[in-house]
Amino acid sequence: GGKPSLESEKVVTTWGLSACFGRSVSYCALWYLCHLLCRRRCVSVGAEDTCVLHPSAWCPGFCGTFLGIAFLGIGLWAWNEKFSVFLGIIFFLELTAGVLAFVFKDWIKDQLYFFINNNIRAYRDDIDLQNLIDFTQEYWQCCGAFGADDWNLNIYFNCTDSNASRERCGVPFSCCTKDPAEDVINTQCGYDARQKPEVDQQIVIYTKGCVPQFEKWLQDNLTIVAGIFIGIALLQIFGICLAQNLVSDIEAVRASW
């Protein structure tokens, strides 16, 4: 009986906020998973069957990971001190993944190249994927993975004699250099662009690939990128400290019983 202690109120409040936030994340994850199942595409290019995973898979992946930690965390509260250890292991695994990504950066570059080229093949098969590629090429001012000729992988843009498409030997409009005087986007600006000499191509389209442009952006913004990752790491460390503090509060409440 009696009025609940301050520690009890803190524990209940923390649990309530965690439950509400976890439920919100679960709804977002389920929504994106449903969206993923509806938008997933398997396309056949020539004799090669390529199953292209929709980019919306990334979001449920992150949400699912966080949700799993949240549910496991609720269960691990029963073991108190093990909860902080569990969060520490997660942080260590993330740190290890970051180190491995730096060590095997060439392998990651190859995988990125493979991923972009697979999505180039499926450019016309999924409107969401098409919009993502167009946004990427416009933002990075690039074309293809390592150059405009990567668009030869797409059945509508390749330069083969059997290709009857009007887009033959061209590139999407998002590869075109922008004229500040134009208010309306010319969606046909990339037609026949790759039939021109390379010197002339540089006038009308971006000739640099998106992978080199992304690497250049990382180098130019290394301080910002490093600051973001350090900030995320500090937030996780702060979360571990809060979890340990919560464990101490729970022990104090149990001791008062």
From TrEMBL:
GO cellular component: plasma membrane
Domain of life (superkingdom): Eukaryota
Pfam families assigned: Tetraspanin
Membrane-crossing segments per the record: 12-34, 55-79, 85-104, 222-247
CDD domains to which the protein is assigned, alphabetical: TM4SF9_like_LEL
Entry's localization field: Cell membrane
Keywords: Cell membrane, Disulfide bond, Glycoprotein, Membrane, Transmembrane, Transmembrane helix
Membrane topology note: Multi-pass membrane protein
InterPro entries: Tetraspanin/Peripherin, Tetraspanin_EC2_sf
Family note: Belongs to the tetraspanin (TM4SF) family.
Protein name: Tetraspanin 5
Source species of the chain: Capra hircus (Goat)
